[in-house]
Amino acid sequence: MKAIRRFTVRPVLPEPLRPLSDLARNLRWSWHAGTRDLFRSVDPERWAAAGGDPVRLLGSVPTERLAELAGDRDFLDRLAAVAGDLDTYMTGDRWYQRQSGRLPAAVAYFSPEFGITAALPQYSGGLGILAGDHLKAASDLGAPLIGVGLLYRHGYFRQSLSRDGWQQEHYPVLDPHELPLDQLKEADGAPAQITLALPGDRSLRARVWVAQVGRIPLLLLDSDIEENDLIERGVTDRLYGGGSEHRLLQEMLLGIGGVRAVRTYCRLTGHAAPEVFHTNEGHAGFLGLERMAELRAEGLDFDAALEAVRAGTVFTTHTPVPAGIDRFDRELVARHFGPHAELPGLEVDRILRLGMETYPGGEPNLFNMAVMGLRLAQRANGVSVLHGQVSREMFAGLWPGFDPEEVPITSVTNGVHAPTWVAPEVYRLGARQIGTQRAEEALSVGDSDRWDSVADIPDQDIWELRRSLRELLVLEVRERLRASWRQRGAGTAELGWIDGVLDPDVLTIGFARRVPSYKRLTLMLRDRDRLMDLLLHPDRPVQIVVAGKAHPADDGGKRLIQELVRFADDPRVRHRIVFLPDYGMAMAQKLYPGCDIWLNNPLRPLEACGTSGMKAALNGGLNLSVLDGWWDEWFQPDFGWAIPTADGVGTDADRRDDIEAAALYDLLEQRVTRAFYERGRSGLPDRWIEMVRRTLSLLGPKVLAGRMVREYVERLYTPAAHAHRAMNADAARELAEWKATVRGAWHGVTVDHVETSVASATAELGSTLALRVRVGLGGLRPEDVEVQAVAGRVDEEDRITDAAAVPLKPVGAPGAGGEWVYEGPLSLDRTGPFGYTVRVLPSHRLLASGAELGLVAVPSEDVAEAAGLLMR
C-alpha cells in the first residue's frame, strides 16, 4: 500500500547528546575528519547505510543506542571536544579578520547549483562543485559570504544503464525536512516567504531554506509550497530542466528572489548587508535588476541606479562558447517585466537593452544572460588565464575599438577545496610530516608558493601510499560495478568475473566528467586495437576507470556513453576498463585519489578551467591533458604530460581527433607506462615518485580554493566594495550624467595631428621620442579624457604587441577651433621593430577601466600616414 501522506520524524536526542544535532546541521562535517569520525563511532553500520550523512544517521539510530552513548564518558568527552572545535572555528579570527584595510562587510555569492556534499544533491557538474568549494574555502578563510541558490526537489538526475548501455535517468524526490537544512522563519515563527509577480496577476512564491556551510549561510529558495499553483510549484523541480519559460522563471527566482532572500535573511539575523554581489555565471544576472529597482524606489533614475549597481557587482563567466550561455527570446523576457509583471519601476525597453546582442554577429532578437551580466558588473573574470583570453575575444563586441587584450575581463583561475578532496591517507602522511595544525593551514589558507616539506617524505612512503589508494579504488570499483550490472539485469551467477576487475599493481587512469561532445569521452576509442594493446600489454598494462553523465536531452552524449560501455563490456578487456554510472561527489572522493593518471582531452580551448585534474594532483595523481584550462598555465614536464593539439584552421574535426588520439597513444606507450613500470636501484619507480613529489610540492599550493578565494577578495571583492562605498547617490548621478555627456559628444573627439622629434626610421635603445599631438575634444574638457601614446613591438602587419600606454599632458590653452595640444615623452625600451599610435579615451575617477564605455578615438589614416614612423 502507498502512503497518502509523508512525515519526517526526527529523533529526540538525550540532553548530553544535543550537540550532535548542531554538528549534523553544519555541513562542516563534510570536510572535517574529526566530526565524521565521531558520527561513524555512533553506529558504523548505520553510518555506512546512511551514506555518511549525519542527519540520516541520527534518524535511524535506536533510542537504546542513544541512551547508551549518553552515558558513555569517553564518547561525551570526544563530543565536547568536537563541538568546542566547531565553536572556535565559527567564532575565532581567521585569515580574513587578520587583513588590514576595509574589506567588504559581506559578499553575496549567487550560483544556480552548489556541490557541498552528496548528502545535499544540488549540483550537476563542475560549476556546482566549484561553487561549493568557493563557499567552503571562504568559510575556512573567515570571508563573510552569503551563498544564494535554488532548492531543487529532484536535484539532478541519478544515472543508471540499460542492458545495452544506454543512459537511464531517475529523479528521486528530495524532502527538505530530511536534508541538513533549516527553514528561515520570521520573528513570529512563520516561514519567511519571497514573492515574484508574474504576468496575468499570478504570483511565484518561495520559502527559504538555510544550509550552514561552516561559517557561511547558503540560502536555497523553494517554490514547491502549497501557496503556489501547480505550474509555479514546479519552478524549482529540476536542475537545468524544462523549456525556455521554465528556465527564465528559475533565473528570475534565483536573481530577483535571491536578492530579496538576502535582504530578509539579513533583517532576521542581523548579518551584515552585502556590499558586493558576485554572479557565478549568467544564470543569476537578474539580481542586478532587483538592486536597481531598490535604488529607483530611493529616488535614483535608471542610469544612476545602473552605475550604483555596477560598482559593487562581480560577474564570473564559466563558458568559452556562445552556445553555453542562456539566451531567451526578447518577447518572452519583455512579457515577464513591466507594469503588469515583475519590477514595474524599471522601463522594459531599458531592461531589454541590457541583454541584447547589439554588436556585429549578435542575434538582435535574443536576450543574452552573460551580456546582461557583463553590462551590470564593473568587474568581470574568466576562470583560467586561457579562458580569460578566450572570454575577452568572445565578448570583444561589447567594447568596440579595443583590442581583445584590453577588454576589461580579467581571470582568476579556479581552485579546489583540499580538505574535501584530499584522501584521509594523504592528509595523515602530510600531518605526520609537518604536524596537524600546519597541515590544516596549508590545505585551507594556501598562502605559500611551494610545499617544500614534501621533499622530506621517503620514496617508500610515497609509493606505499599510492598503492594503498589504488587498492581502495579497486575495491570501490568492484562494488559499484556489481551494483551497476544488477541494475542492468544481470544475475549473481553472471558476475563472478567482477572479482578480477582491476589490479592494485597496474597503472590506473581516470577519466570522469560531464559528457558534452567537446570533452571527447570516446577519443580513447579512436584506435581500438592500440587501446587494447595498452590495456593488455604483458609487461606494462594500463587500466582505465571512466564515469560521466550526459544531459538528459543530449542523445549525442548518451550515444558516446553507450559506445564506451559496449567497449568496456567486451570480455577481453572488461577487467581493465570500466564505466561507472551515477558519477557524483561520493564516487569522486574515491576516484581521484586512486588514479595514477588523470586524463583530460577536450577540444582546446573549450575547457574553461576543468578542476578534476586539480583534485587528482592534490592526491599525488599526475595529469595527462590537452593544454587547456588550468593545465595550459601550470603544466610543467616535471609533473605531467601535455597532449599535443592539432587545432590549425585547416584541420577538420575527424582529422584532428585522429592526430590527437595518436599523440595520446604515443605518450602512453613511450613515456607514461615506462615511467611507471621502470624500477631504479631501490626497486622503486624513481622517476614516477619524483613526479608525484613535484606534483604535490609545486602544483599543490596553486590548485587550492583558498588561493582562489584570496585572489577574489584581493583583486575583485575589495575593489568592488571600495567602488560601492564611493558610489553614493550623488556620485551615481554624477557618473551617469557624465557618461551621457561623453557619449553625446564623442563623435566630435578627433586626433588631428601627430608629430615626433625623430625623423629617421631607426633609433637607439634607451632613447626618447618627444610626441606632440593635436586633438579635438568635441566640447568635452581635458579632464574628461585621457590622451595616450600606445607603443610596443609590431608584427609583420604593423599591429602593436606587448602594448604599453603612456599618458600625454595638455599644454597651453585651446586653439581658436577648440583643439588642444598634448605632449609627452615616449621611451624606446625594447629592440626590434617598434611602433606607436595615439588614442583618446574617456576618463573619470569612478571608472574601473578606460575601456568601460567602449569609446576610443584614434588617428584617421591620413593623420597616421603623416605621423607614423616604425622604428626597425
From TrEMBL:
EC number(s)? Answer: 2.4.1.1
Which InterPro entries does this entry report, sorted A to Z? Agluc_phsphrylas (IPR011834), Glyco_trans_35 (IPR000811), Glycogen/Maltodextrin_Phosph (IPR052182), Glycogen_phosphorylase_DUF3417 (IPR024517), Pyridoxal_P_attach_site (IPR035090)
What transmembrane ranges does the database entry give? none
Q: Which Pfam family, just one, is annotated for this protein?
A: DUF3417
The UniProt keywords, alphabetically, are: Allosteric enzyme, Carbohydrate metabolism, Glycosyltransferase, Pyridoxal phosphate, Transferase
**Role played:** Phosphorylase is an important allosteric enzyme in carbohydrate metabolism. Enzymes from different sources differ in their regulatory mechanisms and in their natural substrates. However, all known phosphorylases share catalytic and structural properties.
Name of the featured protein = glycogen phosphorylase
